Amino acid sequence: MKIAVVGTGYVGLVTGTCFAETGNRVTCVDIDVTKIEKLKSGVITIYEPGLDVLFDRNIKEGRLLFTTNLAEGIKDAEVIFLALPTPPGEDGSADLKYILKVADDLGPLLADYAVIVDKSTVPVGTAEKVHARIAKNAKVEFDVVSNPEFLREGVAVEDFMKPDRVVIGTNSEKARKVMNKLYAPLVRQGNPVIFMDERSAEMTKYAANAFLATKITFMNEIANLCEKVGANVDDIRRGIGTDSRIGKRFLFAGIGYGGSCFPKDVQALHKTSEEYAYDFKILEAVMGVNENQKTKLLPKIKQYFNHDLSGKTIAVWGLAFKPYTDDIREAPALENIKELVAAGANVRAYDPEAMENVKRILGDQIVYTNSPYEALEGADALFIVTEWPEFRSPEFERISSLLKNKVIFDGRNVFELDQMRELGYTYYSIGRDVVA
Ligand code: NAD
Protein backbone atom coordinates (compact mmCIF):
# COMPACT_ATOMS: atom_id res chain seq x y z
CA MET A 1 0.00 0.00 0.00
CA LYS A 2 1.05 3.58 -0.45
CA ILE A 3 0.68 5.48 2.78
CA ALA A 4 1.52 8.92 4.14
CA VAL A 5 2.26 9.93 7.71
CA VAL A 6 1.79 13.62 8.50
CA GLY A 7 3.84 14.61 11.55
CA THR A 8 7.17 12.83 11.95
CA GLY A 9 7.76 12.93 15.71
CA TYR A 10 7.91 9.99 18.14
CA VAL A 11 4.67 8.46 16.92
CA GLY A 12 4.91 9.47 13.26
CA LEU A 13 8.45 8.21 12.72
CA VAL A 14 7.73 4.88 14.44
CA THR A 15 4.45 4.47 12.53
CA GLY A 16 6.06 5.31 9.20
CA THR A 17 9.12 3.15 9.71
CA CYS A 18 7.14 0.14 10.96
CA PHE A 19 4.62 0.27 8.12
CA ALA A 20 7.54 0.50 5.68
CA GLU A 21 8.98 -2.58 7.37
CA THR A 22 5.80 -4.53 6.56
CA GLY A 23 6.27 -3.69 2.88
CA ASN A 24 4.33 -0.49 2.38
CA ARG A 25 5.70 2.54 0.60
CA VAL A 26 5.60 5.30 3.20
CA THR A 27 6.15 9.02 2.90
CA CYS A 28 6.60 10.92 6.16
CA VAL A 29 5.70 14.60 6.07
CA ASP A 30 6.75 17.28 8.54
CA ILE A 31 6.89 21.07 8.56
CA ASP A 32 10.18 21.01 10.46
CA VAL A 33 12.70 21.53 7.66
CA THR A 34 15.76 20.64 9.76
CA LYS A 35 14.15 17.40 10.90
CA ILE A 36 13.25 16.35 7.35
CA GLU A 37 16.73 17.25 6.05
CA LYS A 38 18.28 15.06 8.73
CA LEU A 39 15.92 12.16 8.05
CA LYS A 40 16.50 12.44 4.31
CA SER A 41 20.22 12.17 4.85
CA GLY A 42 19.70 9.01 6.91
CA VAL A 43 20.07 10.56 10.38
CA ILE A 44 17.44 9.40 12.86
CA THR A 45 15.93 12.22 14.93
CA ILE A 46 14.75 10.39 18.07
CA TYR A 47 16.31 7.83 20.38
CA GLU A 48 14.18 4.70 20.27
CA PRO A 49 15.79 1.28 20.75
CA GLY A 50 15.68 -0.86 17.59
CA LEU A 51 14.22 1.86 15.38
CA ASP A 52 17.56 2.67 13.71
CA VAL A 53 17.89 -0.78 12.14
CA LEU A 54 14.44 -0.65 10.54
CA PHE A 55 14.96 2.98 9.57
CA ASP A 56 18.24 2.26 7.73
CA ARG A 57 16.88 -0.83 5.99
CA ASN A 58 13.71 0.78 4.71
CA ILE A 59 15.46 3.91 3.49
CA LYS A 60 17.92 1.72 1.56
CA GLU A 61 15.08 -0.29 0.07
CA GLY A 62 13.33 2.88 -1.03
CA ARG A 63 10.18 2.28 1.01
CA LEU A 64 10.65 5.14 3.48
CA LEU A 65 10.67 8.68 2.14
CA PHE A 66 10.55 12.13 3.70
CA THR A 67 9.24 15.49 2.57
CA THR A 68 8.11 18.86 3.85
CA ASN A 69 5.59 19.10 1.02
CA LEU A 70 2.14 17.82 2.01
CA ALA A 71 0.88 17.57 -1.59
CA GLU A 72 3.90 15.51 -2.62
CA GLY A 73 3.69 13.37 0.53
CA ILE A 74 0.04 12.35 0.17
CA LYS A 75 0.08 11.86 -3.62
CA ASP A 76 -1.57 8.49 -4.41
CA ALA A 77 -1.72 7.58 -0.70
CA GLU A 78 -4.56 5.19 0.19
CA VAL A 79 -4.09 5.90 3.88
CA ILE A 80 -3.02 9.21 5.41
CA PHE A 81 -2.04 9.11 9.09
CA LEU A 82 -2.18 12.25 11.21
CA ALA A 83 0.49 11.91 13.92
CA LEU A 84 0.44 15.55 14.92
CA PRO A 85 0.92 17.17 18.32
CA THR A 86 -2.12 17.68 20.55
CA PRO A 87 -0.54 19.69 23.38
CA PRO A 88 -2.59 21.07 26.25
CA GLY A 89 -4.16 24.42 25.46
CA GLU A 90 -4.25 27.16 28.09
CA ASP A 91 -7.35 25.66 29.74
CA GLY A 92 -5.96 22.10 29.75
CA SER A 93 -8.05 20.83 26.84
CA ALA A 94 -6.22 19.26 23.89
CA ASP A 95 -5.23 21.92 21.38
CA LEU A 96 -6.44 20.78 17.97
CA LYS A 97 -4.87 23.55 15.91
CA TYR A 98 -2.23 21.29 14.29
CA ILE A 99 -4.77 18.62 13.36
CA LEU A 100 -7.39 21.03 12.02
CA LYS A 101 -4.79 22.99 10.03
CA VAL A 102 -3.69 19.83 8.25
CA ALA A 103 -7.37 18.85 7.74
CA ASP A 104 -7.93 22.23 6.03
CA ASP A 105 -4.85 21.73 3.87
CA LEU A 106 -5.78 18.16 2.92
CA GLY A 107 -9.25 18.87 1.49
CA PRO A 108 -8.21 20.39 -1.84
CA LEU A 109 -5.28 17.98 -2.25
CA LEU A 110 -7.25 14.72 -2.20
CA ALA A 111 -7.42 13.32 -5.73
CA ASP A 112 -8.89 9.89 -4.98
CA TYR A 113 -10.59 7.99 -2.14
CA ALA A 114 -8.35 7.96 0.94
CA VAL A 115 -8.67 6.95 4.56
CA ILE A 116 -7.54 9.75 6.86
CA VAL A 117 -6.44 8.20 10.14
CA ASP A 118 -6.25 10.09 13.39
CA LYS A 119 -3.29 8.58 15.29
CA SER A 120 -2.90 11.54 17.59
CA THR A 121 -4.62 11.42 20.96
CA VAL A 122 -7.67 13.60 20.43
CA PRO A 123 -10.84 14.35 22.39
CA VAL A 124 -14.15 12.72 21.62
CA GLY A 125 -15.71 14.28 18.55
CA THR A 126 -12.46 15.16 16.76
CA ALA A 127 -12.95 12.67 13.89
CA GLU A 128 -16.23 14.44 13.12
CA LYS A 129 -14.49 17.83 13.22
CA VAL A 130 -11.69 16.63 10.96
CA HIS A 131 -14.25 15.15 8.56
CA ALA A 132 -16.13 18.44 8.39
CA ARG A 133 -12.97 20.50 7.79
CA ILE A 134 -11.76 18.23 4.98
CA ALA A 135 -15.25 18.01 3.44
CA LYS A 136 -15.34 21.81 3.03
CA ASN A 137 -12.84 21.58 0.16
CA ALA A 138 -12.73 17.93 -0.90
CA LYS A 139 -14.01 16.86 -4.29
CA VAL A 140 -13.63 13.11 -3.71
CA GLU A 141 -14.98 10.54 -1.28
CA PHE A 142 -12.94 9.96 1.91
CA ASP A 143 -13.29 8.52 5.41
CA VAL A 144 -11.88 9.73 8.71
CA VAL A 145 -10.95 6.94 11.10
CA SER A 146 -9.80 7.09 14.72
CA ASN A 147 -6.87 4.75 15.38
CA PRO A 148 -5.30 5.77 18.70
CA GLU A 149 -1.73 4.76 19.32
CA PHE A 150 -0.77 2.81 22.45
CA LEU A 151 3.01 2.52 21.91
CA ARG A 152 5.32 3.25 24.81
CA GLU A 153 8.44 5.31 24.20
CA GLY A 154 11.46 3.11 24.86
CA VAL A 155 9.77 -0.03 23.51
CA ALA A 156 7.89 1.66 20.71
CA VAL A 157 9.05 -0.63 17.91
CA GLU A 158 8.04 -3.78 19.75
CA ASP A 159 4.72 -2.23 20.79
CA PHE A 160 4.01 -1.16 17.23
CA MET A 161 5.06 -4.36 15.52
CA LYS A 162 3.33 -6.61 18.08
CA PRO A 163 0.51 -4.56 19.57
CA ASP A 164 -1.58 -6.04 22.41
CA ARG A 165 -4.51 -4.79 20.39
CA VAL A 166 -5.32 -2.34 17.63
CA VAL A 167 -8.30 -0.05 18.18
CA ILE A 168 -10.05 1.30 15.11
CA GLY A 169 -13.02 3.63 15.23
CA THR A 170 -15.05 3.78 12.05
CA ASN A 171 -18.54 3.11 10.77
CA SER A 172 -17.36 2.84 7.17
CA GLU A 173 -17.09 -0.67 5.75
CA LYS A 174 -14.69 0.56 3.06
CA ALA A 175 -12.31 2.11 5.60
CA ARG A 176 -12.56 -0.98 7.79
CA LYS A 177 -11.30 -3.17 4.94
CA VAL A 178 -8.37 -0.85 4.24
CA MET A 179 -7.38 -0.74 7.92
CA ASN A 180 -7.68 -4.51 8.31
CA LYS A 181 -5.37 -5.03 5.34
CA LEU A 182 -2.81 -2.56 6.69
CA TYR A 183 -2.70 -4.04 10.19
CA ALA A 184 -2.97 -7.74 9.23
CA PRO A 185 0.84 -8.32 9.28
CA LEU A 186 1.06 -6.91 12.84
CA VAL A 187 -1.62 -9.12 14.41
CA ARG A 188 -0.68 -12.48 12.94
CA GLN A 189 -0.32 -13.97 16.43
CA GLY A 190 -4.01 -13.39 16.94
CA ASN A 191 -4.00 -10.17 18.90
CA PRO A 192 -7.30 -8.43 18.24
CA VAL A 193 -8.15 -5.56 15.96
CA ILE A 194 -11.07 -4.07 17.85
CA PHE A 195 -13.52 -2.10 15.73
CA MET A 196 -15.86 0.45 17.26
CA ASP A 197 -17.31 3.86 16.42
CA GLU A 198 -15.02 6.90 16.21
CA ARG A 199 -16.12 8.43 19.54
CA SER A 200 -15.51 5.23 21.48
CA ALA A 201 -12.05 4.81 19.90
CA GLU A 202 -11.13 8.37 20.87
CA MET A 203 -12.36 7.76 24.42
CA THR A 204 -10.52 4.41 24.66
CA LYS A 205 -7.14 6.11 24.43
CA TYR A 206 -7.93 8.60 27.20
CA ALA A 207 -9.43 5.86 29.35
CA ALA A 208 -6.25 3.75 28.97
CA ASN A 209 -3.88 6.58 29.89
CA ALA A 210 -6.05 7.89 32.71
CA PHE A 211 -6.36 4.38 34.16
CA LEU A 212 -2.59 3.81 34.07
CA ALA A 213 -1.90 7.23 35.58
CA THR A 214 -4.43 6.41 38.30
CA LYS A 215 -2.78 3.05 39.00
CA ILE A 216 0.62 4.71 39.47
CA THR A 217 -0.88 7.48 41.55
CA PHE A 218 -2.80 5.08 43.77
CA MET A 219 0.47 3.32 44.52
CA ASN A 220 2.16 6.63 45.25
CA GLU A 221 -0.57 7.42 47.78
CA ILE A 222 -0.04 4.00 49.36
CA ALA A 223 3.70 4.79 49.46
CA ASN A 224 3.09 8.09 51.20
CA LEU A 225 0.98 6.34 53.81
CA CYS A 226 3.60 3.57 54.13
CA GLU A 227 6.14 6.20 55.17
CA LYS A 228 3.84 7.34 57.94
CA VAL A 229 2.88 3.90 59.26
CA GLY A 230 6.31 2.31 58.85
CA ALA A 231 5.46 -0.16 56.06
CA ASN A 232 7.49 -0.94 52.93
CA VAL A 233 5.74 -0.10 49.66
CA ASP A 234 7.85 -2.61 47.72
CA ASP A 235 6.45 -5.42 49.84
CA ILE A 236 2.94 -4.07 49.34
CA ARG A 237 3.58 -4.01 45.58
CA ARG A 238 4.66 -7.65 45.59
CA GLY A 239 1.80 -8.54 47.88
CA ILE A 240 -0.92 -7.06 45.70
CA GLY A 241 0.66 -7.36 42.23
CA THR A 242 0.55 -11.14 42.38
CA ASP A 243 -3.24 -10.92 42.50
CA SER A 244 -4.21 -11.49 38.86
CA ARG A 245 -7.09 -9.04 39.23
CA ILE A 246 -4.56 -6.30 40.00
CA GLY A 247 -1.54 -7.29 37.91
CA LYS A 248 2.16 -6.60 38.47
CA ARG A 249 2.64 -3.63 36.20
CA PHE A 250 2.36 0.09 36.93
CA LEU A 251 2.61 -0.47 40.67
CA PHE A 252 6.05 1.04 41.22
CA ALA A 253 5.98 3.98 43.61
CA GLY A 254 8.18 6.93 42.76
CA ILE A 255 8.34 10.66 42.21
CA GLY A 256 5.35 10.76 39.90
CA TYR A 257 4.54 10.18 36.28
CA GLY A 258 5.64 12.55 33.55
CA GLY A 259 6.11 12.40 29.82
CA SER A 260 4.29 13.70 26.81
CA CYS A 261 1.13 11.67 27.35
CA PHE A 262 -0.11 10.96 30.87
CA PRO A 263 -0.10 14.52 32.25
CA LYS A 264 -1.72 16.07 29.19
CA ASP A 265 -4.17 13.24 28.57
CA VAL A 266 -5.41 13.13 32.16
CA GLN A 267 -5.84 16.90 32.00
CA ALA A 268 -7.64 16.73 28.65
CA LEU A 269 -10.02 14.00 29.82
CA HIS A 270 -10.76 16.06 32.91
CA LYS A 271 -11.50 19.01 30.65
CA THR A 272 -13.84 16.89 28.52
CA SER A 273 -15.70 15.80 31.64
CA GLU A 274 -16.05 19.45 32.65
CA GLU A 275 -17.41 20.33 29.23
CA TYR A 276 -20.07 17.68 29.68
CA ALA A 277 -20.79 18.88 33.25
CA TYR A 278 -19.50 15.64 34.75
CA ASP A 279 -17.55 15.89 37.99
CA PHE A 280 -14.75 13.32 37.42
CA LYS A 281 -13.44 13.30 41.00
CA ILE A 282 -10.78 10.59 40.59
CA LEU A 283 -9.00 12.50 37.83
CA GLU A 284 -8.81 15.63 39.94
CA ALA A 285 -7.22 13.65 42.74
CA VAL A 286 -4.77 11.97 40.37
CA MET A 287 -3.59 15.31 39.00
CA GLY A 288 -3.19 16.85 42.45
CA VAL A 289 -1.36 13.89 43.97
CA ASN A 290 1.01 13.61 41.01
CA GLU A 291 1.87 17.29 41.15
CA ASN A 292 2.93 16.96 44.80
CA GLN A 293 4.62 13.63 44.24
CA LYS A 294 7.08 14.99 41.67
CA THR A 295 8.93 17.03 44.28
CA LYS A 296 8.33 14.66 47.19
CA LEU A 297 12.03 14.28 47.98
CA LEU A 298 12.92 17.98 47.92
CA PRO A 299 11.85 18.76 51.50
CA LYS A 300 13.93 15.78 52.64
CA ILE A 301 16.98 17.04 50.73
CA LYS A 302 16.49 20.49 52.23
CA GLN A 303 16.02 19.12 55.72
CA TYR A 304 19.16 16.98 55.41
CA PHE A 305 21.16 20.13 54.66
CA ASN A 306 19.51 22.12 57.48
CA HIS A 307 17.35 24.06 55.03
CA ASP A 308 20.34 25.68 53.37
CA LEU A 309 21.22 24.44 49.91
CA SER A 310 23.28 27.46 48.92
CA GLY A 311 26.60 26.33 47.57
CA LYS A 312 25.70 22.66 47.93
CA THR A 313 26.24 20.45 44.88
CA ILE A 314 23.66 17.82 44.00
CA ALA A 315 24.45 15.08 41.49
CA VAL A 316 21.33 14.20 39.51
CA TRP A 317 21.17 10.81 37.80
CA GLY A 318 18.51 10.67 35.11
CA LEU A 319 16.71 13.48 33.30
CA ALA A 320 14.37 11.71 30.86
CA PHE A 321 10.82 11.15 32.13
CA LYS A 322 11.54 7.42 32.09
CA PRO A 323 14.37 5.11 30.97
CA TYR A 324 15.09 4.25 27.33
CA THR A 325 13.95 7.58 25.96
CA ASP A 326 15.40 11.04 25.37
CA ASP A 327 11.96 12.58 25.93
CA ILE A 328 11.92 15.16 28.73
CA ARG A 329 8.42 16.53 28.28
CA GLU A 330 6.91 16.98 31.78
CA ALA A 331 9.89 15.08 33.23
CA PRO A 332 10.00 15.32 37.05
CA ALA A 333 13.76 16.01 36.73
CA LEU A 334 13.12 19.47 35.30
CA GLU A 335 10.93 20.68 38.15
CA ASN A 336 13.27 19.24 40.77
CA ILE A 337 16.35 20.78 39.18
CA LYS A 338 14.69 24.17 38.83
CA GLU A 339 13.80 24.14 42.53
CA LEU A 340 17.26 22.99 43.56
CA VAL A 341 18.86 25.76 41.51
CA ALA A 342 16.37 28.31 42.90
CA ALA A 343 17.41 27.24 46.41
CA GLY A 344 21.04 28.03 45.55
CA ALA A 345 22.30 24.50 44.84
CA ASN A 346 24.65 23.57 42.01
CA VAL A 347 23.47 20.64 39.92
CA ARG A 348 25.72 18.20 38.09
CA ALA A 349 23.55 16.02 35.86
CA TYR A 350 23.96 12.85 33.87
CA ASP A 351 21.52 11.05 31.57
CA PRO A 352 22.50 8.54 28.87
CA GLU A 353 20.18 10.05 26.22
CA ALA A 354 18.34 13.16 27.34
CA MET A 355 21.08 15.72 28.03
CA GLU A 356 20.90 17.50 24.66
CA ASN A 357 17.17 18.06 25.12
CA VAL A 358 17.66 19.39 28.66
CA LYS A 359 20.45 21.72 27.48
CA ARG A 360 17.92 23.38 25.18
CA ILE A 361 15.73 24.24 28.18
CA LEU A 362 18.10 24.77 31.10
CA GLY A 363 21.19 25.89 29.18
CA ASP A 364 24.16 26.52 31.45
CA GLN A 365 22.13 26.66 34.68
CA ILE A 366 23.50 23.19 35.44
CA VAL A 367 26.61 21.15 34.60
CA TYR A 368 26.22 18.25 32.15
CA THR A 369 28.60 15.37 32.66
CA ASN A 370 29.78 12.42 30.60
CA SER A 371 29.20 9.66 33.11
CA PRO A 372 27.28 9.02 36.32
CA TYR A 373 30.58 9.14 38.21
CA GLU A 374 31.65 12.47 36.72
CA ALA A 375 28.34 13.87 37.99
CA LEU A 376 29.39 12.86 41.53
CA GLU A 377 32.68 14.76 41.50
CA GLY A 378 32.57 17.21 44.41
CA ALA A 379 28.86 16.52 45.01
CA ASP A 380 27.30 16.69 48.46
CA ALA A 381 24.53 14.20 47.64
CA LEU A 382 23.21 11.94 44.90
CA PHE A 383 19.62 12.31 43.69
CA ILE A 384 18.28 9.54 41.43
CA VAL A 385 15.41 10.76 39.27
CA THR A 386 15.16 8.24 36.39
CA GLU A 387 15.71 4.51 36.82
CA TRP A 388 18.08 3.86 33.89
CA PRO A 389 19.35 0.24 34.19
CA GLU A 390 22.97 1.45 34.38
CA PHE A 391 22.17 3.06 37.75
CA ARG A 392 20.98 -0.21 39.27
CA SER A 393 24.33 -1.87 39.97
CA PRO A 394 26.81 0.98 40.24
CA GLU A 395 30.29 0.83 41.77
CA PHE A 396 29.33 1.86 45.29
CA GLU A 397 32.94 2.28 46.42
CA ARG A 398 33.47 4.78 43.65
CA ILE A 399 30.27 6.59 44.61
CA SER A 400 31.31 6.92 48.24
CA SER A 401 34.82 8.04 47.34
CA LEU A 402 33.42 10.81 45.14
CA LEU A 403 30.51 12.01 47.30
CA LYS A 404 31.25 14.42 50.15
CA ASN A 405 28.44 12.85 52.19
CA LYS A 406 27.37 9.23 51.84
CA VAL A 407 23.75 10.18 51.15
CA ILE A 408 21.43 9.13 48.35
CA PHE A 409 17.94 10.45 47.62
CA ASP A 410 16.27 7.88 45.39
CA GLY A 411 13.08 8.90 43.59
CA ARG A 412 12.67 5.51 41.92
CA ASN A 413 13.46 2.97 44.68
CA VAL A 414 16.37 1.61 42.66
CA PHE A 415 18.21 0.06 45.63
CA GLU A 416 17.23 -2.36 48.40
CA LEU A 417 17.17 -1.00 51.96
CA ASP A 418 19.34 -3.84 53.34
CA GLN A 419 21.96 -3.19 50.71
CA MET A 420 22.11 0.49 51.66
CA ARG A 421 22.31 -0.37 55.35
CA GLU A 422 25.23 -2.75 54.73
CA LEU A 423 27.03 -0.20 52.61
CA GLY A 424 26.58 2.47 55.27
CA TYR A 425 24.66 5.00 53.24
CA THR A 426 22.04 7.42 54.44
CA TYR A 427 19.27 6.57 52.04
CA TYR A 428 15.92 8.22 51.37
CA SER A 429 13.47 6.60 48.98
CA ILE A 430 9.71 6.51 48.38
CA GLY A 431 7.31 4.67 50.67
CA ARG A 432 10.06 2.97 52.67
CA ASP A 433 11.94 3.62 55.91
CA VAL A 434 14.84 6.04 55.84
CA VAL A 435 18.18 4.26 56.19
CA ALA A 436 20.19 6.50 58.47
P1 NAD B 1 5.90 15.04 18.44
O1 NAD B 1 5.83 16.43 18.93
O2 NAD B 1 7.09 14.19 18.74
O3 NAD B 1 5.70 15.03 16.85
C1 NAD B 1 4.76 15.79 16.16
C2 NAD B 1 5.37 16.23 14.83
O4 NAD B 1 4.36 16.91 14.05
C3 NAD B 1 6.54 17.21 14.97
O5 NAD B 1 7.66 16.70 14.30
C4 NAD B 1 6.02 18.50 14.31
O6 NAD B 1 7.03 19.23 13.64
C5 NAD B 1 5.02 17.94 13.31
N1 NAD B 1 4.04 18.91 12.80
C6 NAD B 1 3.42 19.93 13.44
N2 NAD B 1 2.59 20.59 12.58
C7 NAD B 1 2.70 19.96 11.39
C8 NAD B 1 2.10 20.16 10.11
N3 NAD B 1 1.22 21.13 9.90
N4 NAD B 1 2.45 19.34 9.11
C9 NAD B 1 3.35 18.35 9.30
N5 NAD B 1 3.95 18.10 10.49
C10 NAD B 1 3.63 18.90 11.51
O7 NAD B 1 4.58 14.32 19.01
P2 NAD B 1 4.37 12.76 19.33
O8 NAD B 1 4.95 12.43 20.66
O9 NAD B 1 4.73 11.97 18.13
O10 NAD B 1 2.78 12.74 19.52
C11 NAD B 1 1.89 12.87 18.44
C12 NAD B 1 0.51 12.47 18.92
O11 NAD B 1 0.50 11.10 19.31
C13 NAD B 1 0.02 13.24 20.14
O12 NAD B 1 -1.37 13.42 20.04
C14 NAD B 1 0.33 12.29 21.29
O13 NAD B 1 -0.52 12.49 22.39
C15 NAD B 1 0.07 10.95 20.67
N6 NAD B 1 0.79 9.83 21.28
C16 NAD B 1 2.09 9.96 21.66
C17 NAD B 1 2.77 8.88 22.21
C18 NAD B 1 4.19 9.01 22.66
O14 NAD B 1 4.65 8.11 23.38
N7 NAD B 1 4.93 10.04 22.28
C19 NAD B 1 2.12 7.65 22.36
C20 NAD B 1 0.80 7.53 21.93
C21 NAD B 1 0.15 8.63 21.39
Overall number of structural domains: 3
CATH class of the largest domain: Alpha Beta
Q: Which ligands accompany this protein? A: nicotinamide-adenine-dinucleotide
Low-confidence stretches: none
Percent range for β-strand residues: 5-15%
Largest sheet: 6 strands, parallel
Alpha-carbon Rg, integer:
23 Å
In the CATH hierarchy, the architecture of the largest domain is: 3-Layer(aba) Sandwich
Mean pLDDT, to the nearest integer, reads 97
The CATH topology of the largest domain turns out to be Rossmann fold
DSSP helical segment count: 18
Strand order of the largest sheet: 3-2-1-4-5-6
Structural class: alpha/beta
CATH homologous superfamily of the largest domain - what is it? NAD(P)-binding Rossmann-like Domain
What is the helical fraction, as a range of percent?
40-55%
Pathway: Nucleotide-sugar biosynthesis; UDP-alpha-D-glucuronate biosynthesis; UDP-alpha-D-glucuronate from UDP-alpha-D-glucose: step 1/1
Catalytic activity: UDP-alpha-D-glucose + 2 NAD(+) + H2O = UDP-alpha-D-glucuronate + 2 NADH + 3 H(+)
Pfam family, one: UDPG_MGDP_dh_N
Protein name: UDP-glucose 6-dehydrogenase
Describe the structure in your own words.
- With 436 residues, the chain is α/β, with parallel strands linked by helices.
- The chain has 3 domains: 2-196, NAD(P)-binding Rossmann-like Domain (Rossmann fold); 205-293, N-(1-d-carboxylethyl)-l-norvaline Dehydrogenase, domain 2 (Orthogonal Bundle), CATH 1.10.1040.10; 298-428, Rossmann fold, CATH 3.40.50.720.
- The chain has 18 helices and 14 strands.
- It has helices spanning 10-21, 33-40, 51-60, 70-74, 97-106, 126-135, 156-161, 173-183, 198-229, 233-241, 262-275, 281-293, 298-304, 332-342, 355-362, 372-376, 396-402, 417-423, and strands at residues 2-6, 25-29, 64-67, 79-82, 114-118, 142-146, 166-169, 193-196, 313-317, 346-350, 367-368, 381-384, 407-410, 426-428.
- The strands form 3 sheets. The chain has a 6-stranded parallel beta sheet with strand order 3-2-1-4-5-6, with helices on both faces.
- Strand 7 (166-169), helix 8 and strand 8 form a beta-alpha-beta unit.
- The longest helix has 32 residues, at 198-229.
- The protein starts with a strand and ends in an 8-residue tail after the last strand.
- The model has no long low-confidence stretch (mean pLDDT 97).
- Residues 6-12, 29-32, 35, 83-86, 98, 101-102, 120-121, 149, 151, 153, 260-261 line the site of nicotinamide-adenine-dinucleotide (NAD).
- It is an enzyme of class 1 (oxidoreductase).
- Pathway: Nucleotide-sugar biosynthesis; UDP-alpha-D-glucuronate biosynthesis; UDP-alpha-D-glucuronate from UDP-alpha-D-glucose: step 1/1.
